[in-house]
From TrEMBL:
Pathway where it operates: Lipid metabolism; fatty acid beta-oxidation
Family matches, as PANTHER family: 3-HYDROXYACYL-COA DEHYROGENASE, PEROXISOMAL BIFUNCTIONAL ENZYME
GO molecular function: 3-hydroxyacyl-CoA dehydratase activity; delta(3)-delta(2)-enoyl-CoA isomerase activity; enzyme binding; long-chain (3S)-3-hydroxyacyl-CoA dehydrogenase (NAD+) activity; NAD+ binding
Alphabetic keyword roster: Acetylation, Fatty acid metabolism, Isomerase, Lipid metabolism, Lyase, Multifunctional enzyme, NAD, Oxidoreductase, Peroxisome
Location in or out of the cell: Peroxisome
Source lineage: Eukaryota, Metazoa, Chordata, Craniata, Vertebrata
Main subcellular localisation: other
Residues spanning the signal sequence: none
ATP-binding listed as a keyword: no
Protein name from the UniProt record: Peroxisomal bifunctional enzyme
Catalysed reaction equations from the record: (3S)-hydroxyhexadecanedioyl-CoA + NAD(+) = 3-oxohexadecanedioyl-CoA + NADH + H(+); (3E)-hexenoyl-CoA = (2E)-hexenoyl-CoA; (3E,5Z)-octadienoyl-CoA = (2E,5Z)-octadienoyl-CoA; (3S)-hydroxydecanoyl-CoA = (2E)-decenoyl-CoA + H2O
GO BP: any one term: unsaturated fatty acid biosynthetic process
Organism: Crocodylus porosus (Saltwater crocodile)
Amino acid sequence: MAQYRRAGAAVAVIRLHNAPVNALSSAVVQALAQGVKKADLDPSVKAVVICGANGKFSAGADIRTFSSLQPRDRPALAETVSLIERSQKPVVAAIEGVALGGGLEVALGCHYRIAHAQARVGFPEVLLGILPAAEGTQRLPRLIGIPAALDLITTGRHVLAAEALKLGIIDEIVKENTVERAIELASKVSGQPLGPRKISLKPVPDLPDMEAILSEALVKVKRKARGRLSPEMCIQAIKAAVQLPFAEGVEKERELFRFLLGSGQAKAQQYAFFAERAVEKWTMPSGTSWKTASAQPIRKAAVIGLGTMGRGIVTSLVKAKMLVVALEQDQKQLDIGREAVTSLLQWEASKMQQSGQSQDICDPARLQFTLDFGALRDVDLVIEAVFEDMALKKEIFRKLSTICKPEAFLCTNTSALDIDEIAAVTSHPHQVIGTHFFSPAHVMKLLEVIRGHHTSPTTIATAMSLAKTLNKVGVLVGNCFGFVGNRMMAPYVEQAIFLLEEGCKPEEVDQAVEGFGFHMGPFRMLDLAGLDVGWRSRKGQGLTGPKLAPGTPARQRESRRYSPLPDFLCEQGRYGQKAGKGWYLYEKPGGRTANPDPWLYNFLSEYRETHGIKARFVDQEEILERCLYALINEGFQILADRIASAPEDIDVIYIYGYGWPTHRGGPMFHASTVGLPHVLSRLQKYSEAHPDIPKLQPSPFLKKLVALGSPPLREWVSHVRQPSSKL
Ligand SMILES: C/C=C(\C)C(=O)SCCNC(=O)CCNC(=O)[C@H](O)C(C)(C)COP(=O)(O)OP(=O)(O)OC[C@H]1O[C@@H](n2cnc3c(N)ncnc32)[C@H](O)[C@@H]1OP(=O)(O)O
């Protein structure tokens, strides 16, 4: 838990031990405190070094134990940090790997800090719905000043050693032998006065406009937080550091921590932390899993199609230092694509430069632009990112099947199309897989990885490992129309549009959903994505356009309710932001400010009149429940269909791909918090009121879980019916 040893005659080394990240469990904290006391009592010890096992200092408090923490518990970690600072002998932190959260607080209790050049430090607590609660909100501002402390504590960002040195968090950077250098420093400084090294005794550096800085920070975080409490509480704790003596500031920090710990938000954010890690451990319905499948190395990749998605994917691959071949169909498209990728890479390089990272990502030698399919002969993996057109995709996969080396992996970037149909035209269907990137692909963290019927475990492992290499979160899902994300989006968007028919304005629906914490309501999202995307898909499905059977009622398809509103908008050229008008009016084509549009109000009134719909007032509760519970209901069906293997998969997809607020833990977690019987009863109510909307009819799986007494979320999948044996 914490190993105590002597290094040379006069230095004691305390090494934190708790694989894999030296989390500060109560046993580790206790052992650390004992080590510090032992060193203090031993007259032959003149100085102490604290370090972590396996090249990591510590990733902070053990998050798994938070659920059992009682808000009234005395924070043992804070006591240990202050014990370290009170030590009569100099204590040096030797930081390798990470010093995060409580790990950094331990380091701040030390009198000196040495870090390896690759080490990262930070206070990510805010991302877990809490705040640094081992006196970190009181020590960091004293060490680095208010503006920098506000930035680090309210964003949770990790900073590399070079930036930490500049900020004054650490005293020295070393390239190797961090612990040995720390021992040397400890020996050198032993006997020197410790008072000036104790951060708690320092005043917070004064600034003439302190009040204004704090108020501006508050306004900024409130605007960005979308209902998340922890950033605001972090500011309150930092304010206490400015206004109160250290001990009283610590009291305030504890009070705020207790409040946050007891909030549902902290539970949701901690659930999301572990869900993100759980999805890496994928399983197929057959039982094959990450444990037995191994990924193949990808050195060279190709991207076909340099539209918006293709450009982002190329940028991601180049950033991950791969060799990349970018292919287009004609010279003009290739030139446009090359220019776009170059500027994206330059932008990325400048961002990396600002954060002190090396920026050699633009090396043109690693990126080849071509019109020639022959250039794909030696690539390890291809990502096709052309238009959502099945015939075109099949034509490309046929070609790839003959040109690429037999062991190459073939990925299709699609948001809905059938992976098996595409795989069927190749001679290696087991090496074909869906990779659904989200736009902009070089920014968005999510990668939906879609297994086809024949996709091999090696192909899955390779695609999941690719996600990690690209710094994305890969989630493995099954093959069905829309997979997980878009399949659940469909009933949500459908409800939003039905609500317009019934009397809402787009901004009312958006405000309700944004008030819940989403980045964007459904109508702003549709305008951003382009209304023509859905229109093309509906025409393909024969729901509108030339394939629609003559005489089909305007608001009905196969006895289900249908709204032709979005089709009418597209017929008017209102494709959304790019056209300058859609559900909203924009300042110009490509403009970003969504303004309510009187034209649309008139259009909706006339539409209601034509179809004999009497507009009614719909309250926020109904807006939210109809949109979100329809989406969640589909999530239950997706679990029952084994398209997602666990609720965590769905939640991670929604948090990283669709802007679901992290402090609400994802749609399935949200359902478990509001209670499955509640979700079921509301769906029943709405479905009785709208019997022609099948997506409001509660999923049989949701009903089953309620009948079973609403077991906790982690048990849900054990109640999914196993497919019947073929034997
Ligand atoms: C009050 C509150 C106080 C005092 C706190 O300190 S709160 C904790 C603050 N610290 C953090 O938020 C750090 C969380 N961890 C990470 O950001 C990352 O895990 C990492 C950067 C430390 C390492 O990343 P990576 O190398 O990609 O590895 P994984 O993220 O996959 O993690 C490996 C396994 O370790 C588990 N883990 C990580 N941190 C903790 C922790 N603080 N407590 C408990 N467990 C932790 C993580 O879940 C992985 O385990 P498995 O899920 O694979 O079983």
